[in-house]
Amino acid sequence: xxxxxxxxxxxxxxxxxxxxxxxxxxxxxxxxxxxxxxxxxxxxxxxxxxxxxxxxxxxxxxxxxxxxxxxxxxxxxxxxxxxxxxxxxxxxxxxxxxx
Length: 99
What we know:
Elements: H1 2-34, H2 40-61, H3 70-92
Helix pairs in contact: 1-2, 1-3, 2-3
């Protein structure tokens, strides 16, 4: 029982680290693609993580499969979702222009 619990905890930690790394990479790439001032390291990471969920929703709604598998495919979907999210956030910010 103890071995099973520690393995589950290890898997949970690895999953969390993967989400954080994917979020950071996708957020930084999206900030570079969209341009402008970002939201700081943690903010960009959060945009990337929310973008990953948003990108997954976009891809599944449009019934599009990621062209790559594994971590690169996950980062691509997260990046696309983060770019869309950043563009939406820019449109909603008062007094800011899209371009």
